[in-house]
Amino acid sequence: MKPMSQHPVVIDKSYLDGATPSDVRRLCASGALMPDTLFAELVTTNLESRRRCFAKFPPGLNPITLIPSVGALLRHEMAHGAPCAPLVERRWDARFRFHEGLAEGTYQFSEAELQSVREIEREISERVVLYREASSVVESYFPEIRGFRANASRGPIDRAMASVANDRDRILAIYRQIVSGVRLRERSHRGQPSPREAALPPSWWS
Fold this sequence. Notes:
2 domains, 53% helix, mainly alpha, single chain
């Protein structure tokens, strides 16, 4: 297992797109974490972006530490009544390597893998819609920012940020609303597992 820093970095696609290969490999060597949703994002992006990002990972076994998505971590917290910290304890206990064709841009997806990619793309589209809906209710959590304009005084923003740090009851109330919404969605989709909950085609990992 790689040495873990006290506060490991969780990388995302924006970072991968902009960072140099040496920077990415340095973070991987120090125990950087990668959500499984990032892997799904990488295999569903365009060919050049996929090749460029995978080429930045170090070669060999377990190039980076994989962890579950934020949604999976939230469900774990709901089920156990405790935070998912430290995140490294939620890592995938598996030996894997990325197929070299992903970094070379030569990997050819089978029809079954393409179907899995399409399912992931469909799920991502659905989650984008849910995210937009969730974003639209932020003002209900922080009414003091309702109608806030980008060029206005930061006073309302600063007060909202201060309440996040100091008002425990307010944060608990927001958390309850989020959990309630997640549970409602889970009940509405019961019996329909997410495509990412199934095993990813092994050929993607080489």
